[in-house]
Specification:
The chain has about 100 residues and is mainly α. The protein contains five helices and no strands. The protein has a domain of about 30 residues. This is Short-chain dehydrogenase.
């Protein structure tokens, strides 16, 4: 019923146990609040039965609101990330005189 991260939150579990209809109402309200004012055309593809080709991506209309981080670059380049970690460990060892 909930995404994995929300299911582990204690208050969500408490409310779900004691008032499932309240949680359903809140999710309905939040779900509609995330809608957009852009109308969908009549022949627009949908994903009722199969995924829509070409839309297997993470970016979307709200991508400009995301705050990029230098750690994103490390996540896209694992060898460089582990090289930086190794250099940091060597630097700490050298600093401590090991």
């Amino acid at each position: 019923m909930f995404p994995y991260c929300a299911a582990k939150h204690g208050s969500v579990r408490f409310i779900t146990k004691n008032s499932p209809s309240l949680v359903d109402s809140l999710l309905l309200l939040i779900g509609f609040a995330q809608g957009t004012n852009e109308p969908k055309s009549e022949d627009a593809p949908n994903n009722i039965f199969v995924p829509v080709a070409g839309y297997d991506r993470v970016e979307g209309d709200f991508n400009k609101l995301a705050i990029p981080s230098f750690l994103d670059w490390f996540d896209m380049n694992p060898p460089l990330k582990w090289g930086a970690v190794a250099l940091a460990v060597l630097g700490v060892v050298a600093f401590l005189g090991g």
